[in-house]
Amino acid sequence: MDRLSLFVLACLCLSSPAATAAAVRRQGPPSSLRFGPSGDFKILQVADMHYADGKSTPCEDVLPDQVRGCSDLNTSAFIRRMIRAERPDLVVFTGDNIYGFDSADAARSLESAFAPAMEAGLPWAAVLGNHDQEGTLSREGVMRHVVGMGGTLSRVNPEGVEIDGYGNYHVEVYGAVGSVVSNKSVVNLYFLDSGDYSTVAGVGGYGWIKASQQVWFKQTSDRLQREYMGQPEPQKEPAPGLVYFHIPLPEFASFDSSNFTGVRQEGISSASINSGFFTTMLEAGDVKAAFVGHDHINDFCGKLTGIHLCYAGGFGYHAYGKAGWSRRARVVYASLEKANDGGWGDVKSIKTWKRLDDEKLSTIDMQVLWSKGSPGE
Amino acid sequence: MDRLSLFVLACLCLSSPAATAAAVRRQGPPSSLRFGPSGDFKILQVADMHYADGKSTPCEDVLPDQVRGCSDLNTSAFIRRMIRAERPDLVVFTGDNIYGFDSADAARSLESAFAPAMEAGLPWAAVLGNHDQEGTLSREGVMRHVVGMGGTLSRVNPEGVEIDGYGNYHVEVYGAVGSVVSNKSVVNLYFLDSGDYSTVAGVGGYGWIKASQQVWFKQTSDRLQREYMGQPEPQKEPAPGLVYFHIPLPEFASFDSSNFTGVRQEGISSASINSGFFTTMLEAGDVKAAFVGHDHINDFCGKLTGIHLCYAGGFGYHAYGKAGWSRRARVVYASLEKANDGGWGDVKSIKTWKRLDDEKLSTIDMQVLWSKGSPGE
């Protein structure tokens, strides 16, 4: 579906006649999008841009003949190519959007990093990584700046809830206009702040998703499931949920090449202790996949007790990587079922693949994450 | 200290002049106890009584010459011996208090199981295991019945909080009368319901402590720390916290005989997934030890990133065990520091040991869990 119709349709589902596209994006929950007339919805995940100062910021880990003239601008060019090729309905940036240490002005780095999504008029959502706050803005400052940018669905935090971190919110994707689920969210997107580093004495390493965030997530999921399976037009099973954050869970270490699609070329840099978010996702019951970044040269997806755990693979050029191993992005594609009346129904399947920043933007590792009616295991 | 003075002293710290011992125990937070003039406070932990119908309920896993005449009454006799020998200030029952499957009347089993503590006039607290609800009462029913019994500090749940499970509450232990911390809780006891079995499709095994319980625990800990380190008489570090529940955390599997005191004679029957409570205890920062039951023939204590994880070892005779390996109980002993004026100060150290149900009630495995001013690691 095209961008304009997306926003127009998004507005149709709001109760307030004064609602505008901007209102859809930034005021009053829920932030919502909608499946278009083509019956599909596509999400482009961009992980670890590590954007700093643009043209003057060099590339890391590229082949010798790629070094010259390579900069943050290559990262931006890759986003633009991906948008042209995939025509996504939403772009999700899963943290380390900027590399604060090397950024002279965090606000400016953020503006440049997200510019390709804004230029394309695409709705976009971002969460924080562990490097975003290393520059001239704090974590809260970065998230507040992001929320004020054009076209974003990002929010700092849910209102009226005490919660850890910055950037915990959800986005609802409504059914197609004219379908029985046109007033229901048929795909739910959850965004969480997985923190930066441990602040607990004696515990090193990366941060984690705290209990307060998990309670918010679980309550939100419970409510969305009640609404989806309640009157009017009660549906039989919960709408699929997809979760985006930065740092992998310890459970990402459950896989090897025998049971994942993609590659594992480095260790799983999760927190050194387990804060239980995988368990909370299982309890919620609607989550089909969780998508992270953080480990740039891991790009696999593996399924554990019904939930796919997926890396995107590193996207940014001013970020460690592996020379000769293309920067990449993950695409998620949800398609609607045909209803008996010939119109659209609820979600039939969710697939994923990756695209490489090579000459052909090669598509690799297509896999089905979920199909309606198939067992969880 | 004797039982009577304990209750009298507990009343002194309440603001309401109409407060009674019963009010201390069952109405309005906080439930509180107090260090007595002797400057110490002792907790007896009784794990896995598995009480059913009394005299007609046989013992399991005892030596051939112990079978005859052995019943639930041996469990009660062991509690009475322990109370006489140790003179605890509080008895904590950490679940599987009754063995519901074999109980004809759950309420009656509960009354009999806790009778020795009540007869002794001792304050006591209980949490649920995975067998308590198998009889004529549900989990909620068991906990509601327990809360109505004499002398108990148990509560169903904190008021005004949506929380999973039944039996999540805390108890404050105030400093000695006349000391600078006489109006402060110098030891905090947390009690949680670790559930029974997984209800998540595709996930087998035992239950776990949910995010909602962890948020309540963390908020309670945060508040107690603010009060302890705030005006009047601000203290320099948080009061030590001790946590009691039934099912071991996955982190209990972190130890071997090289780094624990006691024995591991069976696997760690934790939940099959990690719900993050160990992480939440670390975040809280005040917890020095967590005490569980569930695995009857493990009785070790091991220290992980500053928190001791301790089994009590099986107590009850109508429960699996190991013939010839005595039923046992864990004692925790907190002692106060001498203040400069010769009176009592805050807590100096917390020790633990076990007692065996042999002829001499042998004391074994004494170890220091925490000393004031020593590093967490």
TrEMBL record, chains A, B:
Cellular localisation: Secreted
Gene Ontology cellular-component annotations: cytoplasm; extracellular region
Cofactor(s) listed in the protein's UniProt record: Zn(2+)
Record has Iron as a keyword: yes
Primary location group: secreted
Keyword terms, alphabetized: Glycoprotein, Iron, Metal-binding, Secreted, Signal, Zinc
Domain of life, per lineage: Eukaryota
Species this chain originates from: Acorus gramineus (Dwarf sweet flag)
Assigned protein family: Belongs to the metallophosphoesterase superfamily. Purple acid phosphatase family.
Signal sequence, start to end: 1-21
UniProt subunit comment: Homodimer.
A molecular function GO annotation: metal ion binding
Residue ranges annotated for the Calcineurin-like phosphoesterase domain, each copy included: 41-297
Stated name of the protein: Inactive purple acid phosphatase 29
